[in-house]
Amino acid sequence: MGVAALAAAGTARAQEGNSKNEMPVSPGRILQVYSAVVTRHEVTIKGQKVPYTATAGSLPVWDEDGRPVAGVFYTYYEREDIRDKSGRPLVISFNGGPGTPSVWMEIGYTGPRLLNIDDEGYPVQPFGLRDNPHSILDVADIVYVDPVNTGYSRPVHKDVPGSRFFGVNADIKYLAEWINTFVTRKNRWASPKFLIGESYGTTRVSGLALELQNAHWMYLNGVILVSPTELGIDRNGPLDAALKLPYFAATAWYHKKLPADLQQKELTALLPEVEQFTIQELIPALSRGGSLDVQARNAIAGKIARYSGIAEKVVQENNLNVSFNLFWKELLREQGFTVGRLDSRYKGIDKQNGGSEPDYNAELTAWLQSFTPAINIYLREELKYKTDLKYNMFGKVWPWDNQNNQTGENLRQAIAQNPFLHLLVQSGYYDGACDYFNAKYSMWQMDPGGRLKGRLKWEGYRSGHMMYLRKEDLAAANENLRTFIRESIPAKGQPAKYE
Question: Spans of biased composition, class Low complexity (predicted)?
Fold first, then answer.
């Protein structure tokens, strides 16, 4: 069905249950550029009943001539018992990859429905969902956005060039335009606005903060980076080699591979010691390269081994720079296990113990096992979005243009230009893909003069990339989001200016 036919169709008949179609959703594997199915629900959050509507639908991406070139799928949760939306925060949520939809945070973290997993985040059967008592829907409305080729989002036809969507800056540009369309259609221009991104989604929202501000004159109150990438901030050479050691230490501590005196310490008491060694000793030593004398090299290798759980011989063989892949393979090699990349609490089993990297990501297979059935059940059965389109947990977005990634600097500029804009960074100590100490380093480099630090905050959790999958961290992280949102909204009448 074409755009004109869709527009002429108007409002479709009511669907089963307490729902209605604002625009039709056709069966079959046909992209619907415009669609919206609205259902009504209720969830109890922190002991309070919260009625809400959920809209599952799609809105277009426009070309320069105003013609749709893609449809972007979204789910929008709006609290029903709030009459005045001018003071009601709107959170715009992205995940990463690039190439994954917003399913992870939607049914794993901040949304009103939560997938069935155990208290540490491992899959359980039967697959399905339950209410999320920690959702931030009590304090903010939320829209989860699936970039093109993820979830149900698609180009309108195969001849639309991927370069329109698949690159650091192309991604930011078209999604900023889409956000403008969404905010306008939903009448949310007056609302305090927040962006939250996870993994590559942090690259996306860091760039979006400045793009929305400069190209759409849309000013934000907050940006939240969950397990952030490097954001285009250079750290090649000795920095790249050194900054991963605190993550190694956290993982070795979790698996009880450290010397007894370190193992008996609390994790948060141990890590500052490792961070200090990394900054004050390891980076200078690695900068010396081959000029480092034998005695000094041996001393550094001994400390790396002590903090990482990797044998000193292996450290020496790798010139004091053990790669992530080798670490994941080596740490539990004697026990016959590998450790996970995105969450080092997970164990895997390889075909052979030899080798320099794991055969697969143990944590990712576990997550796909629980998330994929849950989101397909949820969208079709609870949100009544009926389509035969395949829901892409990982979509084809390659080749991806990574050139001119200035997103960390873009975010710094946005914060400096907008006195209302605050930043929150959330990291899991056991995340080896976007490790916590690199996240700290990025935040430090975004504020080299230290003049913005009153609006920048970092938090750590005892889990991995998706730290919210651990029950204890789900509660704590959502509460921290709730506090951040409230504290980032100025008092009524307060001007945006530097004193």
Answer: 1-14
